[in-house]
Amino acid sequence: MKKHIFKFVIVALFFCLCIFPVGGYASSVVYLGGIPAGFSLNTRGVTVVGITDVSTENGRFSPGKDAGLKLGDVILYLDNKEVNSSEDIAAAIDGKSEAKIVFCRDGETKESVIKPKKDGLGKYKLGLFIRNYVSGIGTVTYIKNNTFTSLGHPILDENGNLIEIKGGNLINCTITGAIRGERGKAGELKGIFLKNAPFAIAVKNTKTGIIGTISDAEIQRLALKEVEMGEACVGNAVIYSTVTGSQPKEYSVSIVKVDKNEKDNKNLVLKITDSELISLTGGIVQGMSGSPILQNGKLIGAVTHVFINDPERGFGISIGNIIEE
Questions:
Q1: Phi/psi of residue 302, each to 5°?
Q2: Is there a contact between 176 and 71 (Cβ–Cβ < 8 Å)?
Q3: Annotated active-site positions, please?
Q4: Secondary structure percentages of the chain, helix, strand, coil, to 5
Q5: How far is the C-alpha of 283 from the C-alpha of 199, rounded, in Å?
Q6: Is 237 left (phi over 0), alpha (psi -120 to 50) or beta?
Q7: Predicted confidence (pLDDT) per residue in 30-77, tens digit
Q8: What are the helix (H) ranges across the chain?
Q9: CA-to-CA distance for 323 and 325, rounded, in angstroms?
Q10: How far, in whole angstroms, is CA 169 from its chain's centroid?
């Protein structure tokens, strides 16, 4: 957790005096988001989330531990074969007494030798629990030229590193309710992913969120309205978000501070002033990240974080910083 200058602890959400001149994007027109999405993203490589023993006829062994692996390591290759799933690992080590393993730790690529062990069923195992996807609920910010932007902040692993994705989908979902935010504990939206209902393709996890592609047919189906981009000033604004059902709604906020030099997804400080939103969620909650912020009818940013000690306050990223990415 990080501490804000006012000693508010903040959390990113998974799943806003005038800011710098808008220049070339002032007249840009985009489709306004605010729609909820279920994110199902395939990761590049597989992440080690647990290390255990393999029971063999000769005793118990821990190939992963012996190879020097740690929780959070991302395995990329086994014997020069790319691995992105448990099936890939099984195929790469089948029948082998040892294999070269290439993995990433804290952004640095490392190599080791791992020695698979055959369990009581005759299967070669590494004694690892792995994860090869991430999922959660977030919000689409806007769409332009069949490219969507969402979340407003990156998806990070347990060690705070940006997760590299290898495709995935945004899935239609319905928000069924919320766990209210309270001082000291972030709230979150609860939703249902609709089976077999992807509507966009995830391409990249960036420092300002997930970007990807969406078809003209899906844009038309969603019936999104068009808005211009603009610049933020201290004063009244609205966020466009979905906290119940599947249709976004405007909720009033106040932009209390703008920091044009802040590059960490926190250009805008927001205070929720809408009594209905406070009644429903307690303020800003996880799942609202990416919710568009509008001022004077123009898109000027997106919600990114909540002050965990004050859920009625949070941060937003300026539209200029999203575009720069």
A1: -145, 150
A2: no
A3: 153, 274, 289
A4: 10, 55, 35
A5: 28
A6: beta
A7: 999 999 999 999 988 999 989 999 988 888 999 999 999 999 899 999
A8: 63-66, 86-93, 216-222, 275-281, 319-324
A9: 5
A10: 12
Nearest to 99 by CA among 83, 112, 84, 86: 112
If you search the block for the tokens 């014997």, which residue do you land on? 79
Residue linked to tokens 């069923």: 121
Containing H/E element for 252? strand 249-258
CA distance 254 to 239: 10
Q: Which domains does the chain have, with CATH numbers?
A: 2-41+135-324 (2.40.10), 53-126 (2.30.42.10)
Residues 282-316: pLDDT tens digits? 999 999 999 999 999 999 999 999 998 999 999 99
Angstrom distance (rounded) from CA 251 to CA 246:
15
Please tell me the distance from the alpha carbon of residue 76 to that of residue 66, in angstroms, as a whole number. 18
The DSSP string of 44-89 is EEEEEEEE--EEETTEEE-HHHHTT--TT-EEEEETTEE--SHHHH
DSSP-derived 3-state class of residue 216: helix
- Residue 230, SS3 per DSSP: coil
Q: Which residues of 273-311 are buried (b: 16+ CB within 10 A; e: fewer)?
A: ebeebbebbbbbbbbbbbbbbbbeebbbbbbbbbbbbbb
